[in-house]
Description:
Layout: H1 2-31, H2 34-74, H3 92-108, H4 113-125, H5 129-143
Helix pairs in contact: 1-2, 2-5, 3-4, 4-5
Amino acid sequence: MRAKISYAVTAAVLLFYFxxxxxxGVMLIQxxxxxxxxxxxxxxxxxxxxLWFLWKNTQFVRRANALATxxxxxGGLPVDELKRTPGGRIDRDSADEVFAKRKAETExxxxxxxxxxxxxxxxxxxxxxxxxxxxxxxxxxxxxxxxTEA
Length: 150
């Protein structure tokens, strides 16, 4: 729940920023000189790119959460078997062990979205966010029946 609240607050702040920047871009365009119109158009591009990124990221999170809900209903969510340091951080060796199991599971069933989901969680636990995201994207694509690259 804390993550959802943080995401909602971040999204709201970004939307406010995009509106603020967009209004400045419109004001520059309304000034009417060649220079201010050029700057105004350039300034308007930033909120458009930001909104696109926010939309794509929100869609990704919603789809990943839907997979987690479905996997939880099946009883297939990965069990947290990671050792932690006294400070609560995940022990690196423990994360590597679990990752090796998840990778072998995925290699044994490369077309199963469930194994890719669990691999994404293992990547995340090992603090490899880019690979975690790619694995989750693969899980989403397999779940949706879309062709995926090897």
